[in-house]
Amino acid sequence: MSDIKRAVSMYSLQDQYARKKMTLSDIFEYLNDLDAGLEFISDQMLKGTPEPSEESLAEWDRLVEQYKPDLVCNDIFINTCLYKNRTLTKKESVDLLIKEIKLAHRLGFKMVRLVSNTPANIIEPALPYAEKYDVVLTLEIHAGMSFDSPLTMEFIEVMKKLNSPYVGLTVDTGIFCRRHPRVSTNYFRDLGTNEEVISYIDHIFASGTDPKQFFAGVRSEGKQFPEELSLFLKTQNDFEYALFADGYEMSPFTILDEYMPYVKHIHGKIYEMTEEGVEYSIPFDELIKYLHKAGYNGYIATEYEGNRFTLPDMPILDKENVTAHQKMLKKYIDEL
Amino acid sequence: MFDNYVFTEGTCKNVEDKGQITGFSLQSLITYYRGIPCSMIHDIKVMVDGQEIPREKIRFSPDGTDYFTLDELTTVTTYKWEYGEQGTIFVEQAGGLSGGEHDVTLSIAVRVAYIPVPFGGTKTRQVMITQ
What we know:
A: eight-stranded parallel β-barrel; B: 47% strand
């Protein structure tokens, strides 16, 4: 038996919602069919966030009353780039965070996820509000901006110093990729990306490390990529393929050992569920065993990112991937 | 990355005001996965048959009611371009687009805090203008 629970991030259903194939009511019904909780993005599906109108809130209340979703987490963003000519001050950013905490509370969420690179110095001033409104603040640990990123390190320092049950982490499983997502490869291949670049990146993963670690040496010398890779980068797509390869990390699960007391939430990143019912890049069976052994009893929220790599004029298989991932999570959790 | 959301099909048309064609408009979904204040729209570009429209001729409206120039947009923080809602791009051009077929390209870039460079999408559509 395990207390690990399942949820779905609304990142997964962005296309359904944008194209008005699914309303919020359809989504709540879908989640109930999956017996999964809701990870919401209020900026996406609640107009006027962080200050929605009374009408919007009344509609939210009505839907929550009707479907009784399990309100797991709201994903929030501090728009420090609100203005083109300057970055928001600390005071402005703290004020925005407080507004988001109050909104999360009003909507019924007890946790928010702060996107990577959120300034660490706004956490302590907002902590009294997190406590008062009973909302846990978690920073997302995302591949490309994970534990070795300066802003993440700053946050972790603040988190350890405050040592509060209201400050923690949301870990995105994109840091546990064992190979480059095939759907991304095929998307860039379709755009004409050089096969030598694709093969070069695949070889890095096959050698047992990830591009960010592999490039670390030359980056400390001020170069972006090793010389032999740079020679292959002939077009913008070649360059982007190499650049975005940083966004898939191959960390061992044990990288979480020291952080597990602070891990409040997991983003179950998926790029592609295969016909065998597993994620192409990420070994969820091993991950769930690790989490269980570490005593994790929070949620794993499916975050489908294959939508980004759907070939032009092909349908986005978002619901199919989410449903398959939820089925897989349920199987692995039940097996514990 | 968001090319599939730029420039909604079938939305490009001439705009008439008091009996005069004052320009043309087109619509788009946001090139992102959430709504943002309009000041975070970094840039909008329109090209017609290979010719770029001067930026001062471009207006944007998040709601189809209030329109802003690109310079004005930089301070528009209380209007959001909501996710899943069509934004309207109006190009001021006396007489609008001439009758017949045109290649119209729309590019939209947005600015977000956690990604170091503005990003967005571009789409070219063949547009038939009937007059």
